[in-house]
Backbone:
């Protein structure tokens, strides 16, 4: 009887011990990146790149093996509030803002960065009546999809627009609007579906820059070419905007962000399992941050820089990572 009780106790305790070891760790790096927020983060050939942000900042490269930062070239213009996409040997920057708060302007052209050459070039124009920033961006079957965003800086102009851009032909197509308007979020694709969760409706004109966070997510089905019906199960547990997002296995994961509910940036990390329609907590980050993103290298997810409080500061240098579950 005692052996059975001991075995039950061990089985109950062991998962807790494993879970207690599943935590974010801060990396001690050689050198520092340029502290920034409202910037982009991406992985390319086992290196992490920090790009853009308010002001014209150098691009910073982090070698995960040597844990060393190296400074690279600057973009030709100020770019912030965008979600970078790595496609082949190029990084596409579409749906960015430029200029100072709160009257930022939407960048009217595609900007492409080539990490191998450390070179920026301008690409196709964005249709004048569809340009915006702080939009969600994702890539699916040779097309870039841009969703939501702001047409009038932080003053107002939040949209539910949905467009596709063919990177080969340069053609833009207007698609069906999303059910909800949103900005300051990141879009993701998993299992032939596009996920748009978190974000807000920014309206500084009426002193609602942080208040109007989105409660529910929208999901687009690429197979049916339709937005899926509303479900209360799409409600994100922690309402925030300016968050990062990534996909791992059958979950879409959202971390960080800012909201009117607290001065500190959020450190919550929450995962939505689409097949089960359930949310669960992942380990929370050591440092709350918004205006940055996540990237995956060698079964670790990384995040770097961003703002430690809601709004523009303090801008961070730190980099942390979490081992991804098997």
Residues:
């Amino acid at each position: 009887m005692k052996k059975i009780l001991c075995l039950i106790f061990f089985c109950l305790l062991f998962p807790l011990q494993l879970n207690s070891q599943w935590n974010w760790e801060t990396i001690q790096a050689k050198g520092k990146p340029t502290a920034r927020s409202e910037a982009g983060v991406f992985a390319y050939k086992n290196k992490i790149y920090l790009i853009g942000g308010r002001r014209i900042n150098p691009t910073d490269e982090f070698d995960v093996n040597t844990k060393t930062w190296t400074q690279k070239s600057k973009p030709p213009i100020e770019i912030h509030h965008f979600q970078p996409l790595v496609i082949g040997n190029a990084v596409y920057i579409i749906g960015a803002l430029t200029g100072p708060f709160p009257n930022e302007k939407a960048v009217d052209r595609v900007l492409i960065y080539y990490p191998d050459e450390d070179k920026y070039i301008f690409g196709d124009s964005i249709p004048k009546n569809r340009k915006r920033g702080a939009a969600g961006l994702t890539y699916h079957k040779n097309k870039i999809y841009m969703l939501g965003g702001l047409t009038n800086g932080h003053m107002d102009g939040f949209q539910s627009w949905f467009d596709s851009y063919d990177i080969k032909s340069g053609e833009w197509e207007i698609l069906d609007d999303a059910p909800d308007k949103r900005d300051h979020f990141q879009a993701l694709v998993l299992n032939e579906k596009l996920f748009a969760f978190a974000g807000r409706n920014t309206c500084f004109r009426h002193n609602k820059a942080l208040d109007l966070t989105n409660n529910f997510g929208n999901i687009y089905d690429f197979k049916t070419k339709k937005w899926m019906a509303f479900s209360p199960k799409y409600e994100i547990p922690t309402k925030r905007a300016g968050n990062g997002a990534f996909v791992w296995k059958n979950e879409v994961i959202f971390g960080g962000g800012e909201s009117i509910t607290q001065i500190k940036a959020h450190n919550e990390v929450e995962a939505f399992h689409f097949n089960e329609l359930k949310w669960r907590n992942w380990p929370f980050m050591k440092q709350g941050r918004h205006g940055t993103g996540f990237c995956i290298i060698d079964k670790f997810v990384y995040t770097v820089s961003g703002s430690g409080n809601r709004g523009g500061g303090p801008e961070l240098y730190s980099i942390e990572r979490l081992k991804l579950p098997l």
Notes: Residues 237 and 270 are 8 Å apart (CA to CA).
